[in-house]
């Protein structure tokens, strides 16, 4: 324990790295089953803007209002479930018992013509809390479970249960309608302090994932199964949190973070006291900053008309309800107060029910509306029937929450294994950090003018880029909006540099050369892809994307070389040369590798293969320069190591290394397109690190901003920059976009770049090597690479890709061959998108290897099933 | 007053539109002088996470710590200024008096060898508060001032002042060092309730702008002037707020919003009680959501170790200081407590001083660093010396806060009159709303995969677009990243549609035509600009941007027509025809207009000029089709009404209307590039509304997202979409960007689109006509258009542009002619960027006409001075 008046200055804070990394781990702990909940009935979370603002009174009032005659006439709800996941001060404080008891009192006071079965249950309690509950009867050993990284210890399985049947005097005949009130406390601690303190002091800990699992089960019990389809049970569930919105839960996670994976709609109990406006607004904002929807705010009137400024602030967004003042005199058990509050609770109930109905309606309407008005990119709309449109309700770290309709409506999780077009990096913790930074940056800067100006996020971002991916070579940062624009800028830079270096610029400026006599081409690899705008497309070899029907202006201004590729097959890494490379005397050790590291090994530079590559490149360049007159190869552009869109092909790093060397020796500027590969996608901060060579210009986007917002950067050496320096503005690089270096993109990049490369926040980082640890279980990868349906595997960094064995129309970008496999994996909680017959798993730089292993195992199973189905199909066909 | 238990459901809320619009107005009220403050010494704002958390104790402790012997040895501060802008419960509660008194007590308790002049002053108090203060002496009329839309009424100029000289026993000789404590209450109210309630109940109101003006004056008094350059006074100022961070100020604005224009660094006094973790974190987040920097958190220990979860949450970002518990027993005037707290306050002081020093250092370093590592777009770096680099500290609505170094460091405001490359729309209120939405959306979605999926922000954004700018014609929304990509997509759509409509698509698919025999060109207007990526550039006529040195691949794939332009000169709107239009029998009424509305009038459709236009266009198209074989005009692209980059040229709307008609009659798809013109830039939601004709495809960006984040949309008719429908994916539009329809961009667009077109939030909107009211004072505009240095003026919607009379190298994009004018206007608080000799003012759709008039007046003055300088120069030269 710390000294009471301890002073924590920034130096001291470093001392407290332990609670910090605990915090990380507790959020990262893996979930064995997906977080999901039914949408067949409303479930709300009740939050408080502070402790002691009356959350439990609201719960009790709601219970009475919902299980009442009035209720039956409008929307019949026959079951009210009240859950208190975390209770401290137990058993003297028990909110679930309070709701249970208060409901009974109200019932007996009002005596409605119903029968209600009411129950209250406490599942688990800490040893001291159990002792206090059971008194002398206590003596059983406390629970201690540990399974799959989840844990829960120091609890006693209390199973405390009481129930009563409430019936008005009229007797059973009148009360034909039978209602049910279920109150439940999940975990109880003895001390009336914050749960994280109680948990620590009483030695009764529960991890976030176990708590959420238990909550999920509690939400499910008594709901599913009962009644079946046509005899639907009408239920309303509420979960009451402990303390304020950002009060810590038992693990120390803030409750607003802890419950975030469910993202249930919220009722916020505000504060009617002096200072309560501020507290209510701030609590509301903390909920919004975690992506919660607040459906209503309710608070007790304290004579300060707090609703007026709240209404002004909220601008119709959220209804505000004001409860009458709670009397000091409790002699009537608050029965008069509950009577006076009846209309407020009934309004609250209506708001909750109608918000639920609206939400469900919207979720159901969305697929059709989307099909009607969206124009999705890269999508033939006729191939996407309404039922295939996926409704994404939210994201939590690497997981989507999606709306599914099976037997009933469900909100369930899918791992975003395509990383939303390869952009995603944040885990749940980074996402919330980014959200706060986005709010801050928007509030501080919005967007501000870049040229000739400077502001903090842009400067810090540029500093981090030059000190990170650009370290050792780059000196200038040019910002733009996306990978494609970054490439167009890079090409403009490279061409100018080329003209400058080869004296053509001077000749042009002094009219010694006519610009019509200079044609610039780009050297590129077949199968690489650099973006969809025309300038970027021109640097790609012809493909489905570049056809006349797609872009009539495309001509393909490149010399395109066929590259050698590397992949794993039957557990071994193999090198495959293109037909254009007819090398003699190939050595076996050059052609296959037991370890991936050997592929990257620098010692290969001295191999005869390296010489063959070098010769091949020289010949190709010679061939070209002979056949054309005015044409120059003004730039080399490559995607280092992996051709992503080109089917997740791993290019032989030796070949790319030799290629770069050959170009640089000829003063052909080298561009690395690291849009896909940059920022740990392949396990190192940049793919240039893997290649062990440096470009003159490089482009970054996607993961640079943590995958939250589009922005790109083109880095360049000072030598490239100098080719644009002069007296005239017309010599400057006249390219820019309105939102160049927008503050939010820069702020997101600053946070993400730092997060990914800090071993305190990225537990995957091996800091000595500045590499990610192996995320994909090698044994499993090798097994997969040995399956007959699998042609090749590439696993590197956050990527694990494989090509399915396929022929004819089953192969290539247009192929639908993988569809059944993809569909099955989606059912299994993995969202994948194929590239024709190439499929891949992609995680974030911070995703835990356990999650990756879970994904791989599911993929393995899926592939086995797919294999069997193909065999069956094959045998039917044959 | 409302009934105590009033229930506000969404229906009832509409009733309360009054406080809401008051809220708007109080934020919009114009500032007569810029918000600025000195950076020659630290100024901090002290915020509370709740009421009663001890802000004033912290202030008093700081005062004692700063004006102390220890302090003198390390960093000598000789003056401590304490400001309490808003005090309720006055005079019995007076925090400035408390600090004054407590400091004196501590001084007398500690008896340091110093002399301190301490004073406490209260400037103004409400009538009841004055009465209570002055007792029987009361009887003077209360103040009532109103000037330039600012107001302050119901106050008495209290001028209450007391001072004392504190000296230790040692006598004057020893106490050679003279220190000063200045305590000041700005406004006092009698009732101990929230300021907005007290202000209303006591009839003593003060607008936000008057309050900020007073605060600015108070921050300045006793600082500037004293001592001069070499004898600098060392000062530290703190401003203590009232209640919690989001407690309302006197006008009803939340204090975190009220003080936002200063954006002073913050000390947050947290809450050590149960529930205090949550309250402290939420308050911190509310401050972050307004763009404040929190330098330290300090709170009173209540034995709950609240610092542990706070440290975990804050991750080194902010130091946390814990004060010892305040004793219940106050008999020693807390002297023991202050003694125990001395080390905490001294740490706090050090943190505040070093944060200040770091901030100043960074501000000074930024220009050099920016010059060293940025590569600004459209900028010849040699023309931007370090002293010209502007440091933008933040934005508040339409204003930048910039760091200036004159006699001393200053943080001051400039109106962003270039709207940061024409993107900006938000006023201060919308900016904060957007910030919260950005935080929410990042937390809920981050970014999620778009194709084949649907999620709320994207769907709502598409719905709003089709129901707004696309209403009546568009059915599909294609999202992309910026104007340039939106144009490339539009061209691909148009070409496909053209091929489809003219049977070429079928011929190509059935190999009846070879694609090499089809060349598609675009019809465009000379001077128009559509973006910097190659595809968009190809649709522009050759210019400085498109030269070989800039983009060697540019060829200019367009037929470029010279358009007729319209402008105001000497108070009259005139039409100017290009040389290529040699029309006979031009009528005077066709060539000049008294009102701008006449220029847009539909009756011009029947004029002989319309016929001449029609004939001219037909001839141009004929000429073209005769001279080329395979070439087709596959699309028309125009910037409707205004060529922005082309020098803010207003194109004759009649000409564009005729052009559209001629193309549509020939089944040439029409693209409107509304990237600049869309979303109220020109006074209507789209420029198509002004032209009164509809395109087949249109592009939007910039203002669409309120200018906060890049995103664009290409809208199209169903007929265009149908040209991409088929069985094969390869027939689909294969263009997309990773962040397509990113959730944050969509959410920003949703908020902004709604905000701009809602008369409740956009007070400039004339809702019957769906037009903005005239923002630029017509009389002033006419006067400006009559100045000899002004060649032409175009004022429309949020734009007021003018071309300076210039010849030779003084004219055109490369001209530096306007520089002296621009520099003077920047000194005068207006940030303008010229387009060569064309300069312009640009505001947001919600900017108040009063602000626009202020800008125009300054521009007018500037032009007069410029004119005189030119004359002088002229007479010197001649």
Amount of helix of chain A = 25-40%
Low-pLDDT segments of chain A: 1-29, 138-144, 146-150, 225-231
Rg calculated over all Cα atoms of chain A: 32 Å
The interface involving the most residues is between: A-B, 209 and 211 residues
Amino- and carboxy-terminal Cα gap of chain A: 74 Å
Number of distinct beta strands of chain A: 35
- In quaternary terms, these chains amount to homodimer
Structural class of chain A: alpha/beta
The coarse overall form of chain A would be: elongated
| Biggest sheet details of chain A | 11 strands, mixed
User: How big a fraction of the residues of chain A is strand?
Assistant: 15-25%
Mean pLDDT of chain A: 90
Can you give a write-up of this model?
Two copies of one chain form a homodimer. In chain A, strand 21 (565-569) and strand 22 (572-576) form a beta hairpin. In chain A, strands 3, 4, 5, 6, 7, 8, 9, 10, 11, 12 and 13 form an eleven-stranded mixed beta sheet that branches. Chain A is 36% helix and 22% strand. The model of chain A is unreliable at 1-29, 138-144, 146-150 and 225-231 (pLDDT under 50). In chain A, helix 21 (608-627) crosses helix 22. Chain A has 878 residues and is of the alpha/beta class. The first copy, chain A, contains 28 helices and 35 strands. The relative contact order of chain A is 0.09. Chains A and B meet through strand 1, helix 1, helix 2, helix 10 and helix 11 of A and helix 1, helix 2, helix 10, helix 11 and strand 12 of B.
């Amino acid at each position: 324990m710390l000294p009471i008046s301890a002073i924590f200055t920034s130096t001291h804070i470093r001392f407290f790295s332990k609670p910090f990394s605990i915090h990380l781990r507790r959020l990262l702990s893996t979930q064995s089953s997906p977080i999901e909940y039914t949408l067949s009935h409303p479930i709300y979370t009740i939050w408080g803007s502070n402790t002691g603002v009356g959350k439990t009174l609201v719960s009790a009032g709601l219970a009475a209002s919902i299980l009442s005659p009035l209720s039956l006439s409008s929307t019949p709800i026959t079951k009210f479930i009240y859950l208190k996941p975390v209770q401290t001060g137990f058993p003297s404080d028990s909110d679930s018992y309070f709701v249970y008891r208060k409901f009974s009192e109200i019932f007996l006071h009002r005596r409605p013509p119903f029968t209600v079965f009411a129950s209250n249950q406490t599942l688990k309690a800490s040893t001291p809390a159990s002792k206090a509950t059971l008194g002398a009867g206590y003596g059983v050993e406390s629970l201690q479970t540990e399974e799959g990284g989840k844990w829960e210890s120091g609890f006693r399985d209390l199973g405390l249960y009481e129930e009563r049947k409430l019936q008005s005097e009229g007797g059973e005949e009148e009360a034909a309608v039978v209602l049910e009130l279920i109150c439940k406390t999940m975990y109880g601690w003895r001390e009336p302090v914050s749960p994280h303190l109680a948990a620590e002091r009483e030695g009764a800990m529960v991890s976030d994932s176990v708590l959420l699992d238990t909550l999920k089960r509690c939400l499910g019990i008594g709901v599913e199964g009962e009644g079946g389809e046509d005899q639907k049970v009408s239920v309303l569930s509420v979960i009451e949190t402990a303390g304020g919105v950002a009060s810590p839960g038992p693990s120390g996670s803030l409750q607003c973070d802890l419950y975030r994976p469910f993202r249930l709609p919220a009722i916020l109990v505000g504060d009617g006291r002096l200072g309560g406006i501020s507290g209510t607004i701030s609590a509301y904002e903390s909920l919004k900053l975690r992506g919660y929807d607040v459906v209503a705010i309710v608070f007790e009137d304290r004579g300060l008309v707090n609703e007026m400024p709240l209404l002004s602030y909220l601008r119709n967004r959220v209804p505000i309800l004001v409860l009458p003042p709670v009397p000091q005199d409790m002699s009537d058990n608050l029965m008069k107060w509950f009577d006076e509050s009846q209309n407020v609770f009934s309004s609250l109930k209506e708001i909750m029910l109608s918000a639920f109905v609206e939400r469900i309606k919207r979720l159901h309407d969305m697929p059709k509306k989307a099909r009607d008005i969206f124009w999705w990119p890269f999508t033939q709309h006729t191939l996407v029937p309404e039922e295939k449109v996926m409704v994404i309700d939210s994201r939590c770290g690497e997981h989507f929450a999606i709306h599914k309709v099976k037997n009933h409506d469900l909100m369930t999780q899918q791992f975003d294994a395509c990383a939303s077009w390869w952009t995603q990096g944040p885990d749940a913790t980074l996402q919330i950090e980014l959200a706060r930074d986005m709010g801050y940056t928007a509030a501080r800067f919005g967007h501000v003018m870049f040229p000739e100006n400077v502001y903090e996020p842009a400067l810090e971002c540029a500093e981090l880029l030059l000190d990170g991916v650009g370290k050792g070579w780059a000196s200038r940062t040019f910002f733009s909006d996306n990978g494609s624009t970054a490439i167009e800028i890079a090409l403009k830079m490279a061409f100018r540099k080329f003209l400058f270096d080869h004296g053509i610029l001077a000749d042009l400026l002094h009219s010694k050369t006519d610009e019509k006599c200079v044609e610039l081409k780009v050297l590129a690899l077949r199968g690489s892809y650099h973006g969809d705008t025309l300038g970027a497309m021109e640097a790609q070899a012809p493909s489905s994307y570049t056809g006349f029907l797609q872009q009539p202006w495309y001509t393909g201004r490149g010399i395109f070389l066929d590259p050698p590729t590397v992949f794993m097959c039957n557990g071994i890494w193999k090198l495959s040369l293109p037909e254009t490379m007819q090398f003699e005397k190939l050595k076996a050790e050059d052609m296959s590798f037991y370890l991936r590291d050997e592929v990257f090994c620098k010692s290969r530079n001295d191999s005869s293969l390296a010489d063959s590559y070098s010769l091949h490149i020289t010949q190709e360049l010679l061939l070209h320069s002979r056949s054309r007159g005015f044409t120059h190869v003004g730039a080399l552009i490559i995607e280092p190591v992996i051709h992503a869109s080109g089917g997740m092909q791993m290019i032989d790093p030796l070949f790319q290394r030799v290629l770069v060397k050959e170009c640089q020796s000829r003063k052909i500027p080298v561009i690395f397109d690291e849009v896909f590969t940059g920022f740990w996608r392949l396990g190192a901060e940049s793919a240039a690190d893997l290649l062990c060579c440096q470009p003159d210009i490089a482009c970054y986007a996607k993961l640079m901003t943590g995958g939250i917002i589009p922005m790109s950067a083109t880095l360049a050496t000072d030598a490239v920059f100098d080719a644009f320096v002069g007296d005239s503005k017309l010599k400057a690089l006249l390219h820019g976009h309105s939102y160049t270096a927008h503050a939010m993109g820069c702020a997101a990049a600053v946070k993400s770049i730092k997060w990914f490369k800090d071993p305190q926040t990225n537990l995957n980082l091996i800091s000595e090597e500045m590499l990610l640890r192996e995320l994909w279980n090698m044994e499993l990868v090798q097994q997969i690479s040995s399956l007959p349906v699998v042609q090749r595997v590439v696993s590197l960094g956050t990527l694990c890709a494989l090509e399915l064995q396929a022929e004819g129309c089953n192969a290539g970008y247009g192929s639908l061959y993988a569809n059944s496999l993809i569909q099955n994996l989606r059912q299994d909680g993995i969202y994948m998108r194929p590239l024709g017959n190439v499929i891949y798993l992609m995680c974030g730089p911070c995703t835990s290897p356990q999650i990756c292993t879970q994904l791989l195992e599911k993929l393995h199973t899926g592939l086995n099933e797919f294999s069997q189905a193909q065999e069956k199909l094959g045998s039917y066909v044959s």
